[in-house]
């Protein structure tokens, strides 16, 4: 009998993937976790029935969370990742030699433990000496830290369960306080096809708190609609003013200096969701 994993992205739409093996399932304190082997996208981590990452397409998301903001900030040394328990964003952050300390705060230690065991090509850098792993609510951590970080990255699940607060205006205001004077943040902000209202709201909230607010996109086939967005809020530096010729050549498979700029060029229906 064939086994298929199906994610209902809305009540009326979804994706399905043929599964050859179930590696682990666990009901954690916060969510239903599973790691399965799929035919088309390799190993796949799911939380509460939603795809979090797959070995085949994870590089797109992790590179596009990390590099646009780290190449916009002139000297990012103290970096915080909220969520991100699979370790993929941390792997990309460590490609930047200026980074002295990369803090990961995920609410669910079981995501970290299972990712280390079953997704070493993604989570294998979490034991790097520059990395500090904290199991805590990212909402609390941000409120408890002031003027500490150069860059904050929010790699959370969609706004369900423990992540609901991570899409609220109060959280973005607290990120502003946790950031140093001339610093910036980026957050995954879902997709324009199925979550346009959420994107519009986040864009509006961030633009009321940060002088510079930007929106960019990437293609992630296993995420809802395949078209994913990221919102950047910055106190000083503008990603659109980055000199591409100054972007260092690091090993990547999606992000390039040219794509750094191209990712901010949006189709009209997405442009209309932007704050400005
Ligand atoms: N890239 C994926 C996406 O865009 O859907 C997210 C991957 S990452 C595994 C998401 C992580 O966010 C999970 O490990 C989850 O435990 C964590 N998370 C959810 N709410 C959180 C909170 N309030 N504080 C810290 N981490 C949280």
Structural overview:
- The chain is an alpha/beta fold.
- 27% of the residues lie in helices and 33% in strands.
- It is built from nine helices and twelve strands.
- Strands 8-7-6-9-10-12-11 form a seven-stranded mixed β-sheet, sandwiched between helices. Strands 1-2-3-4-5 form a five-stranded antiparallel β-sheet.
- It is globular, with a radius of gyration of 18 Å.
- The model has no long low-confidence stretch (mean pLDDT 97).
- The site of S-adenosylmethionine has 25 residues, from β5, β6, β7 and α5.
Distinct bound molecules: S-adenosylmethionine
Note the run of SSEs as H and E.
EEEEEHEHEHHEHEHEHEEHH
Helix content: 25-40%
pLDDT averaged residue by residue: 97
Main sheet characteristics: 7 strands, mixed
Shape field: globular
Our count of helices gives 9
Order of strands across the biggest sheet? 8-7-6-9-10-12-11
Describe the secondary-structure layout.
Blueprint: E1 3-10, E2 13-27, E3 32-38, E4 42-47, E5 50-54, H1 58-70, E6 78-83, H2 88-93, E7 101-106, H3 109-118, H4 120-123, E8 131-135, H5 138-144, E9 149-155, H6 169-178, E10 179-188, H7 196-209, E11 212-219, E12 227-234, H8 257-262, H9 268-271
Parallel strand pairs: 6-7, 6-9, 7-8, 9-10
Antiparallel strand pairs: 1-2, 2-3, 3-4, 4-5, 10-12, 11-12
This protein binds S-adenosylmethionine.
